Amino acid sequence: MPYCNIWFSFRLAILAAGALSSPAAFAQAQPSPDNRDASASGPAAPTSDAATPVAPTPPKTIFDRNWVAIGAGAGYRPSYEGSDSYNIGPAPLIQGSVEGFDFGARGPGLFVDLVRDSKRANKVQFILGPQILLRLDRTGRINDIAVEALGERDTGIELGFTSGVAFKQLLSPFDSLTLSLNAGWDVAGAHNGSVITPSVSYSTPLSRAIFVNLSLSADRVDDNYAQTYFSIDAAGSAASGLPQFNANGGWKSAGAFLVTAFDLSGNALDGGFSLFGLSSYNRLLGDAKRSPVTSIRGSADQFFVGGGVAFSF
Length: 313
What we know:
Layout: H1 3-20, H2 38-41, E1 67-78, E2 86-90, E3 93-98, E4 101-105, E5 109-113, E6 124-135, H3 145-149, E7 156-168, E8 176-186, E9 194-205, E10 210-221, H4 223-230, H5 234-240, E11 250-263, E12 272-284, H6 286-290, H7 292-295, E13 301-312
Antiparallel strand pairs: 1-2, 1-3, 1-13, 3-4, 4-5, 5-6, 6-7, 7-8, 8-9, 9-10, 10-11, 11-12, 12-13
């Protein structure tokens, strides 16, 4: 799940939400006193310089300076990748910006955006920085006796980068579209492989208190990753009763992720408490789908729902 870009778009949407209540957003739509009755009374009289409207100052927000958002929640997710059995687990949140550098949580991991864009002024913004991700798949709570017999996997530590570009004000003055590419390589010896994730994310505020973000993404893995989580050797077949299978790398999955956030004060610009909801659907592809781990003991359809409460300051 592209958490980095989701919460990056969350910040863009919060800033845009402030514009929804700014007088500048409606200046073009409102007739001036001099022109309102022009059709009935003839040409409007000249106006003095003193009557010339002055562009309003953009509203101040906590996001104009250093800020942090922390949150806690829970999610209902598959017990392993490819499972049709689900567990409830934590869904923590951390996101912030210090001296123009954005940072935040990604799955069970962290990222830092080292590009210091002007968040208000630029319609095109860039994302580039390091990321670290823990791979916890099949490290416990497998919930399937046959897959459990294949043995637990070690915790992976994937180091890599996050990159992308965000375009603001596409379909409205307040939306944003983010194109990104994230990559990670296991350095802990858990699978010794790589995961590359391209994604596209669209966010828009519905009011000063509500915003939504929809993201589409896909995962491409190498042979090492596929063999660790989806292959079954002779010993594993004897222990589990599942047929042997040799998995190759390729496109592992594709899906959609939806985020909804609601500020409890009705004004996201001043920080404070908010509620967030998360939901996703992923479809396993290729050998990840064909593996007996998925095709016999689990399901290629993977769902996730969750939510929680956050505090921004």
